[in-house]
Amino acid sequence: MVATDTTSNTGRRTPAAPRPIRSVLIANRGEIARRIIATCRAQGIATVAVCSDADARAPHVREADSVVRLPGDTPTETYLRADLVIAAARRSGADAVHPGYGFLSENAEFARAVQDAGLTWIGPSPESIEVMGSKARSKELMHDAEVPVLEALRPEDVTADHLPVLVKASAGGGGRGMRVVEDLDLLEETIESAAREAASAFGDPTILCERYLPRGHHVEVQVFGDHHGTVWAIGERECSLQRRHQKVVEEAPSPLVERVGGDMRERLFTAARNAAAAVDYVGAGTVEFLADENGEFYFLEMNTRLQVEHPVTECTTGLDLVDLQLRVASGEPLPEAPPASHGHAIEVRLYAEDPDAGWQPQSGPVHTFDVPRVRARFEPLTAPGIRVDAGVEAGSVIGTDYDPMIAKVIGVAPDRRRASALLAAALADTRFDGPTTNRDLLVRTLRDEEFLTGVTDTQYFGDHPEVFAPLADDSAVALSALAAALAQAEAVLDGAGEHREPGRQALHDATLAANPRPRIRGWRLFQDQWRIREFTHGEQTITASYRWERTGYTVDPTCLPVGIETVSVGDAGPDVVVLEVDGVAQRFTVTRGGEDVFVGSPRGHVALREEPRFVEPGAAKAPGSLLSPMPGTVLRVAATVGAEVAEGDPLVWIEAMKMEHTIRADRDGVVTECPVTAGERIDAGVTLVVIEANGDGETDEAQEAVA
């Protein structure tokens, strides 16, 4: 007979006896689902995955022992449906539920429903989640527990004297529903936008405000409690490098705490333990603080779940935090004290996004994903090396319904500088052929001397525009385009055609094997023409020209980049091209995906798009068109045909990858077209609004008269 839970006066549910866990349903997706599966497999525990239609072929679905489909694509249709998740646990025979992070992980009603269904909840009590999930209520409790706090404000109480203020979702985390307001006139619009985003991400639109410290350090403490009254403060992490209030670089230990020294670490640990003890906390949690340069800190919030950045704590302590979650949930006590921390670990979040375009999320297929020198995946790593926790792999498709994080890459070493160098080198050598990522920004950041000194704060990216520059310079782009052109020429020669379908390619290969024929290249007796291919790289157009002569390929000297005197072709194939650049041989790998070409070399990784030789009529963008920068769902439309608009006016709101994006007028004028409606799902490049600038009509009429 299964032991039943009893509830104390403090709200803590204490098992009457140990309750072994045999099968865990993971109420999540992506890399955290794979992380939980890895530990469960190591412990001999069966796993059940749930998946949306969009995730039907995701890696976590393939790796789980059993899978239950949740019909639909969006989070609100699937992973946020508590009733469907609990029904899936019952159908599959799971006896426990692990929520991961995000989605329902900090939903007290879900936790309560799991327990009411007779299942083990791998997390804190619903009462703890309820108290700490309300950022306003939790701050009151922390004040009573003598934990330093920042002033919380009701939106209606905010005045100009409070500015700047941070508008934030009361539920959830991860930067969703979070905005900084510096102009009181923008407060109402910002609150409405943040509430919509919070409702979509967490199912709760409640918003609060607090004073904003522009230059702070985000320092957090990993805590762990059991059902027997033991509370650990395992170690601190620093997560100051953020974009859109979402962490990008996380590390343990904190450079700020190391630099300030004295009793700061012990004061942090004491405050974190007091915070956890105030709510009889059980399981893994994180107490987050905002600290200043002098070592003073203020409570921000408590995340009542496992954090995204938990690997850096695992890699500096040797603990498997997911294993601890399972043991504590089944009723086992924690040892008296946690292990000591050693070395340094840095985690970066590899995102499908374009940092130089306002961190715009990207989507599309992943053709290649290979991180070199990996020593661990989804498990603690205490020796120097690289750990990778990835939610996607080669063959995956990054869609628009979920967060754009590709992977967490962690560097571990005895000290911070060596961890940074190891991680930067691994990222620089990573082959990722797919949507644009923030990889180059991460490498430049890890090699930046100011970052290496450990004095960075939450304004780092705003203060350092130089880290947004790509690793590949203009010469690398030009040489990559040349390598792409030669590889394509070889692919055509080998019979692959421009983009031949697999079935046709197999037929071609079989016919060629049965009827061998000599390879005929484009050589002519009187060679006077260069073969030309054009590529685009962002806004840049690159021309690569070459020809075949008796001795091999010859490169047109007029297409050589500035500063390079000679380029000769050492070897060429459909996938690899060797160029001798001023006498130094360099290897270029080439991967194609439709019109996209991905080229990797020691000079950097370059994504190109091959320009079509013939452009279809009507394919060009109409003047004044505002196009969707990404696939997504139209949330609101403010534009109406015939209305006058001014540059900067918000016209359309799009939700993509759990974030809300505002499309604004790029000119003064009149709206002549608005073909989209709220609720419509759209692709990238779709026309949202067409604006005729003042005077455009007269110019067009004049041109017609001249014609």
Q: Overview of this structure, please?
A:
There is one protein chain. Helix content is 26%, strand content 31%. The protein is α+β, with helices and mostly antiparallel strands. The chain folds into five domains: 22-121, Rossmann fold, CATH 3.40.50.20; 151-212, ATP-grasp fold, A domain (Dna Ligase, domain 1); 215-468, 2-Layer Sandwich (D-amino Acid Aminotransferase, Chain A, domain 1); 474-610, Glycoprotein, Type 4 Pilin (2-Layer Sandwich); 625-706, RNA polymerase II/Efflux pump adaptor protein, barrel-sandwich hybrid domain (OB fold (Dihydrolipoamide Acetyltransferase, E2P), Beta Barrel). A nine-stranded mixed beta sheet has the order 16-15-12-13-14-17-25-23-22, sandwiched between helices. An eight-stranded antiparallel beta sheet has the order 29-28-27-34-33-32-31-30, covered by helices on one side. A five-stranded parallel beta sheet has the order 5-4-3-6-7, with helices on both faces. The termini are far apart.
Low-confidence stretches: 1-13, 497-501, 698-707
Number of domains: 5
Helices, by number, come to: 18
The CATH superfamily of the largest domain is: ATP-grasp fold, B domain
Helix content: 25-40%
